[in-house]
Amino acid sequence: MRPPAGTAVCGIRSEWFLPGAMERLLRRWRSFAGLLWAGCPPSQPPLCKLYHHPPGRVKRLALSRLFQPQNLREDQVVGLEGKVAELSCKSHRLMLQTGLIHPAGPGCYHFLPFTVRAMEKLIRMIDQEMQAIGGQKLDMPSLCSAELWRATGRWQLMGKELFQLQDRHSKEYCLGPTHEEAVTSLMASQKTLSYRQLPHLLYQVTRKFRDEPRPRFGLLRGREFYMKDMYTFDCSAEAAQHTYDLVCDAYGRLFDRLGLHFVRVQAAVGSIGGTMSHEFHLPLNIGEDTLATCSNCGFTANVETLDPKQPNCLVCQGKLTETKGVEVGHTFYLGTKYSSVFNAKFVNAQGKPSLVEMGCYGLGVTRILAAAIEALSTEECIRWPGLLAPYQVCLIPPKKGSKEEMAIELMETLYDDIADALPQLQGELVLDDRTHLTIGNRLKDAKKLGYPFVVIAGKRALEQPCHFEVWCQNTEEVVFLPKQGLLDLLRKVQVV
Questions:
Q1: For 268, which DSSP code?
Q2: Residue 277 region, left (φ>0) first, then alpha (ψ -120 to 50), else beta?
Q3: What is the pLDDT of residues 283-318, one digit of tens each?
Q4: Residue among 158, 129, 127, 130 at smallest CA distance from 144
C-alpha cells in the first residue's frame, strides 16, 4: 500500500515506496542496529529504555530516577560549606545533607527538585490566600531602574545592600530587593484610574536580591531568595486600613494551615517607610530578632521599636519578657509616601484627582520553608508541614534476595492501587526501588527526608490477610494495616 499521490510521507511503513537512496540508507541502519543490540549483554537494558509500567495505569515514580545528590547515611556534609560553625543551624545542615539545596556561592543555593516541589506547594497556598482577598498576580522585572530609586532617595539610603550594575549604555540598575518604586510607577502610568476600580491588590512571587554582608543559616539569610510581595492601592486611609487588616488576617490563615505557631509583632518601618508596620515571626532560638511580649495584655513588639529604658509594657505596665524570632512576613502601611513621588493618582467621587493610599506586604517564601524545617524537625530528620511535604507517601518493597522478595511485586501493585483509588495522591507517591539496600537502610533515608507516610512490605505482607507496616512520621506512630485500611488512612491526606 502506498500513500495517496501528492502527499508527503510523514511516517515510515515497510510497504510504502521509498526512493532508492532512502531505501539503501534504511537497510544499512537496520543492519547497524541489529549489530548494536546483538552486542549488548543480556543482563543490560537496551539503550534509551523507557520506564515501563502497566498499560493504562499511572506511571510509577521510582526513587532511583530522582535527581537528589546526597549521602544520607553519613554525618559529613559535602560541598562548599566546610566550617562546622557555619552549619550550626539545624535546617541548614539538614537541607544540605539530604540534598534539598546545594551551595552555589556565598548566600546562593541551587534549589533541588524536592525543595522546588515544596516551594511550589507553598506558592499555591499563598496564591489561594492572596486571591481569596482580591489579589491579582503579576510579574515585574528584577532589573530596577536607578532613576526610580533615586527619586525616592532609597538608592543612597540602602547603599551597599543593593546589587548595583550598569548596562552597556552606562544606564544604572539594581537587582530588586523589593518593588515599591516599580509598582508605583506602573500605577502612575494608568492616567484614567477611577475610584470605582479601587482597591487594587497586586502581588508577585519572584527572586529577590540583597547584598548581605554575612550570609548565614542557609535559606534563612541569603543573598538571593524567593519572596511574595504585594502592593495595595486604595482611595482613602480608612479603606487602606481595611485592606491592611485583610492581608494580615490572610497571613494568619496561611500559617495556621501550615501548622506553624507564629506571633505578629509591632515593628519599625525601616528603609521601606510608611507610618505603621508589623512583622510575623516564628519563635526560634536562632532568630536574629528579639521580641518583647507582655504576659498580661499580649502586646508584642520587636525590641528595636521600644525604649530600652522602659522595662514594662506601655499599654498595661505589665512585665515584658524577651524571646527570639525568625521573621517570615512583614506588612507596611505606606500612605502616600511613594504615590506622591510618582504622582500615582485616581479620580475620586467628586471628579478630582487624588493620590492613592498604599500598603506593601512581604512573605519570605524560601525563608518560610527553612524556618518550618527548623521549627518542626528533629536533629536527625526533616519534618515538613504536612501540606508542603515534597511527596506524601514512600513505598518500600523488600530487598532482593531476601525471604520476603515475593512482596516486591505486591508493593508495585499497591502503588497502582493507591494511585487508582486516590487520584489526589497521583504524583505524591514514591517507590523506593533501590532493592539492593535493606529495608532498614531505606527506612532510615525515608525518615531523614520526612515523607509523612512510609509504607513497608515486610514479613506480614506475605501473610493472609496481608498487612503493611505504616510509619506515620509526623505523629511518630507505627501501625500494621491491610490494604483497605491503608487506603482509608491515606484518603484523609490533604494536598495542595
A1: -
A2: beta
A3: 999 999 999 999 888 899 999 999 888 888 888 989
A4: 158
How far from the centroid of its chain's Cα atoms is residue 369's Cα?
6
Contact 294, 353 (CB under 8 A): no
Q: Tens digit of pLDDT for each residue in 163-177?
A: 999 999 999 999 999
| Cβ atoms of 374 and 415 closer than 8 Å | no
Matching residue, cell 510504502: 16
Q: Which amino acid is at 191?
A: K
Q: What is the DSSP string of 144-172?
A: EEHHHHHHHTHHHHHGGGSEEEE-TT--E
Cβ pair 361, 129 in contact under 8 A = no
How far apart CA 216 and CA 223 sit, in angstroms, is 10
325/336 Cα distance (integer angstroms): 31
429-431 and 393-396: which strand pairing? parallel
Sheet holding 429-431, edge to edge: 429-431, 393-396, 453-456, 468-472, 477-481
Angle at 180 between CA 179 and CA 184, to 5 degrees: 115
How far is 122 from 119, CA to CA, in rounded Å? 5
Report the C-alpha gap between 300 and 191 in whole angstroms: 42
What is the identity of the amino acid at 158?
A: M
Structural contact between residues 215 and 107, judged by C-beta atoms closer than 8 angstroms: yes
In contact, 162 and 174? CB cutoff 8 Å: yes
In the structure grid, which three cell numbers stand for residue 252, read together? 494568619
Pairing, β 453-456 against β 393-396: parallel
- Name which of 427, 393, 400, 398 is nearest 61 in CA terms: 427
Each residue's pLDDT tens digit, 72-117: 645 455 444 445 445 679 999 999 999 999 999 999 999 999 999 9
